[in-house]
Automatic annotation (TrEMBL):
PANTHER family: BIS(5'-ADENOSYL)-TRIPHOSPHATASE, ECTONUCLEOTIDE PYROPHOSPHATASE/PHOSPHODIESTERASE. Gene3D superfamilies: Alkaline Phosphatase, subunit A. Signal peptide: none annotated. This is Type I phosphodiesterase/nucleotide pyrophosphatase.
Length: 273
């Protein structure tokens, strides 16, 4: 199997809000073009630890990235490093912590804001530092990377849902509207990406609570969505997927062999083992 994969991590998006507020993604489900699964994020339910979890398959307790202040490169192979070593092209439009985990730490804005270096795990990057950097601008950055460099693996990581949740809390119109807004942004890009045959996953690192934060085990801060779109997914109704399996599953889609990453075989078409 070898397919181009776009992984979209909508920072801070709790499962029920994804399920109830994202009409375009739910429309894809009703049209049999997408399937939504529920997964529990690893702990602590915090951003940097879970970027590492999603991108390496290693839980925070094992990776050592146990809070947002651990500023260093990851000790593990990531989707980026494995893809780059396999001769594939990698790109990310993401928060600067992703650059710090896989390219260079600490982040140096003049050097790293726009990255183009095929020796680095993330070969092409647009990295931002402000949590209110507009999601629609980030998608413009991502589309620039996709259309210019044709990456095999593209990470898109917008921050406005999380930023809004920190300001107004989980049970707020503002938080729900931030999810509705990004759903509209997705509807501007996904039809073309689907038509071009990309395998697309839309998930989140963690959710949000009513105290305007996250980090613990409440359902609203721990339960996150995983939408899958593309003909290489099984689209079976039930699937016990773990956050630690996203990395290996993306590697399987990319056709990268010889990784020790855990794969969720149930997610994949023609691979029910
Ligand atoms: Zn947050």
């Amino acid at each position: 199997m070898s397919n181009k994969v776009i992984l979209i991590v909508l920072d801070g998006l709790s499962y029920p809000v994804a399920h109830h507020c994202m009409g375009y993604l739910n429309g894809l489900i009703e049209a049999d073009s997408a399937t939504l699964y529920k997964l529990e994020c690893e702990l602590p339910s915090m951003s940097r630890p879970l970027y590492e979890c999603i991108l390496t398959g290693i839980s925070p307790i094992k990776s050592g990235i146990v809070n947002n202040e651990v500023v260093r490169l990851s000790y593990f192979d990531s989707i980026f490093s494995l893809a780059q070593k396999a001769g594939k092209t990698t790109a990310a439009a993401a928060y600067y912590w992703v650059s710090e985990l896989y390219n260079r730490a600490p982040f140096v804005v003049i050097r790293d804001r726009f990255t183009h270096d095929i020796q680095l795990p993330i070969q092409h990057g647009c990295f931002y530092q402000a949590d209110h950097y507009p999601d629609d601008h980030l998608f413009m950055d991502a589309e620039y990377l996709r259309s210019t460099y044709s990456p095999d693996f593209l990470l898109i990581h917008p921050m406005n849902i999380d930023d809004t949740g920190h300001k107004f809390g989980f049970d707020s119109p503002q938080y729900r509207n931030a999810a509705r807004k990004i759903d509209t942004v997705l509807s501007s890009y996904l039809p073309s990406w689907i038509e071009q045959g990309y395998q697309i996953m839309v998930t989140s690192d963690h959710g949000m609570n009513n105290d305007h934060s996250h980090g613990g085990i409440l359902a609203e801060e721990r339960t996150v969505p995983l939408f899958v779109i593309g003909n290489q997914f099984s689209h079976q109704a039930q699937c016990a997927v773990e956050q630690t399996e996203i990395c290996g599953t993306v590697c399987a889609l990319l056709g990268i062999d010889f990784t020790d990453k855990k794969i969720c075989h149930e997610l994949l078409a023609g691979d029910q083992s």
